[in-house]
Specification:
Elements (H helix, E strand, L loop, with lengths): L5 E3 L9 E9 L5 H7 L14 E6 L1 H5 L3 E12 L2 E10 L6 E10 L4 E8 L3 E5 L4 E10 L2 E11 L4 H5 L7 E8 L29 E3 L4 E2 L3 E5 L5 E5 L3
Parallel strand pairs: 4-14
Antiparallel strand pairs: 1-2, 2-3, 4-5, 5-10, 6-9, 6-11, 7-10, 8-9, 11-12, 11-13, 14-15
Length: 237
């Protein structure tokens, strides 16, 4: 539709004064000629629920400070049968915004035998079927940090397993944030015109952000070696 369409922010986000949109796609009911001339989305809605518009939003400040991120990570292989994982889950939501139903999955090696987890908020336990620690957090307010710590007991690896290095999959995070639009896009005005059926339409807009493919790398892995020296690997972002 346009190489770099943009839309003004009207208070739904604290970040940018405008939002750049990429890969914009409209439902067939949208009158594209009206949008191209004055940037108003005009349409006759079909029956039932439908997706009016899809897009990607570029927000440089959110790239530097995503709404949820893993900070201060520490992964230490204490021995061949024991590993420690520590980090803090940091929220960058604006004041007054609360994320709900947060699920954090921390992958574990395939030879994990047992896991002791310590968290101050929510519940966390090891899931053998998912080969990951699943941390369930009811809610997290805007600027806040939650600590996570786990000690992983491993089964002694066979020679074949020892030669295969653990890939260290990223931590995945799922969440929802009602009344918040992470992209910064806001609906400035909603007008409903209906003169024939006398339909009583309610004019309201609900904002909600849901975490999709949200991943964070744990970063460094410190290994204990013979002679008291440590080795450190850097995980790629």
């Amino acid at each position: 539709i346009n190489d770099e369409p943009s839309a003004p922010v009207t208070g739904a986000s604290k970040y940018a004064a405008s939002v750049e949109l990429d890969d914009v796609s409209f439902h067939p009911c949208v009158r594209l000629g009206v949008f191209e001339s004055n940037r108003q989305i005009t349409f006759v809605p079909p029956d039932g629920e439908f997706i009016l518009m899809t897009y990607r939003a570029t927000n440089p400040q959110q790239r530097e400070n995503p709404v949820l991120r893993v900070v201060m990570p520490r992964v230490e292989e204490v021995s061949k049968t024991r590993m420690c994982v520590d980090f803090r889950l940091k929220s960058h939501f604006p004041v007054g915004i609360k994320a709900k139903d947060i699920t954090v999955k921390i992958p574990c090696p395939t030879n994990t035998a047992n896991v002791a987890v310590r968290v101050k908020v929510g519940k966390a336990k090891y899931s053998p079927t998912e080969q990951a620690i699943v941390w369930l957090i009811p809610s997290i307010d805007g600027p806040e940090e939650l600590p996570f710590s786990a000690e992983i007991s491993l089964i002694a690896a066979t020679l074949a397993q020892a030669e295969t290095q653990w890939a260290r999959p990223p931590v995945t995070i799922k969440f929802s944030a009602p009344t918040f639009a992470a992209s910064g896009l806001a609906c400035k005005k909603l007008t409903i015109t209906e003169n024939n059926l006398n339909y009583n339409a309610k004019q309201w807009v609900r904002y909600q952000t849901k975490g999709g493919q949200y991943e964070c790398r744990l970063g460094e892995v410190k290994r204990a070696t013979e002679g008291g020296r440590d080795e450190t690997d850097i995980a790629s972002a």
